[in-house]
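Re-running medium-chain acyl-CoA ligase to confirm reproducibility after the cluster update. Everything else is unchanged from the original entry.
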Amino acid sequence: PCRSFHGNNRLLTSQIVSYYESINQGKKVLPEYFNFASDVLDEWARLEKDGRKPANPAFWWVSDEGEEVKWSFEELGSLSRKAANVLSEACGLQRGDRVVAVLPRVPEWWLLNVACMRAGIVLIPGTSQLTAKDISYRLQASKAKCIITSDTLAPALESVLPGSQLLRSKLTVGRGSRDGWLNLKELL
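Result of re-run:
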């Protein structure tokens, strides 16, 4: 079923379907390498900027307390480029490196997903319900070079980090700072 987004008279679903139909009919060439961040997100941001696509939020998050975070395609693109730079420069990660993210579903969870796609970094998501043994196993099995968590979950994770030989950097998402951890908000 197609529906418009917040009163927009253009149907998003039909646009996506027509795009894929044009690929199936050979009217569009599939790229050899596809990157959602640059091939979709950046393209939609460009279309919005050029006035060829109506402005709609790319991301809209509301907390249980009613706090809202709303990013346009251009804002999400810009923030994800900055986050990708944090991962590459401050955390020292390269294309193909693995990151374990133990985060609640906060806006930064989605931002870091897009940033990892953009930078070619493999994101291994984990929930806050994982035990120390679960996290230790994931760090060892994945050979992760970075762990990302919230400032409130960081103390619980620190007990398993010494056993992870390949871990290069630790990144927190939140307002608080912690010794030995980088802070995403400060680095952005």
